[in-house]
């Protein structure tokens, strides 16, 4: 059993649970009863990111499940960057959903949780019936233009030093926010704590390098499969976006085009909008869950 420090448990009072997957042991939170709501985070965070959303859903008719991607949070941490692929992450999510026998799922995704969740849903045999999409790139790129952050991750040696030795980008998460203070103090410490050991820091670099920089990138096949599922999805959809996100703020336009019937909530939040506008996310989840 992992013993969390008090500065985390004070903010994140949830019982740790673990499930075996093909990619390693996955930590997850499983709270409440009712329609399943699956909250999937991205790089370099963990289920702690959704604590305010989980609190907002507490007491409702929902079974809230929030996993940690393998390599992050309290899940197992493969130590080789090459171990991480979109398919392996998608497979581990699929194993969790199948192992818990989650059906009629409202899938809530952000950052890498979008492509991973979409790939999982494409293989889940109709288990996902509602969708809330936030600051992600759920769709296959039209043009392979990466950000400075992702170009930096491809630089040999210097990126390894930054990500491995200095735990990049954990110390600068606040810079991606509408309100930089939203990730500071004990909150910032809580994001960094699971990656306090240098040997455990493969995932943030691996996930950054998984962003495709060309049509031959190994991630493109899985992105294509997830894209096809998303475009064909007929259930209720909402988009909740932090428009001050320097990484994916502009991605809202394309998601609007692909999901023209989706309700859209634009906010002044940044990339990790769960920290800044949890009430808007909770409201969207409730509307999707109630739309039968």
TrEMBL record:
Name of this protein: Haloalkane dehalogenase
The keyword Hydrolase is assigned to this record: yes
SUPFAM superfamilies assigned to the protein according to its UniProt record, in alphabetical order: alpha/beta-Hydrolases
Keyword Hydrolase carried by entry: yes
Pfam families: Abhydrolase_1
Source organism of the structure: Archangium gephyra
Alphabetical keyword list: Hydrolase
InterPro entries cross-referenced by the UniProt entry: AB_hydrolase_1, AB_hydrolase_fold, Epox_hydrolase-like, Haloalkane_dehalogenase
A GO term for molecular function: epoxide hydrolase activity
PANTHER family recorded: AB HYDROLASE-1 DOMAIN-CONTAINING PROTEIN, HYDROLASE-RELATED
Domain AB hydrolase-1, residue spans: 36-142
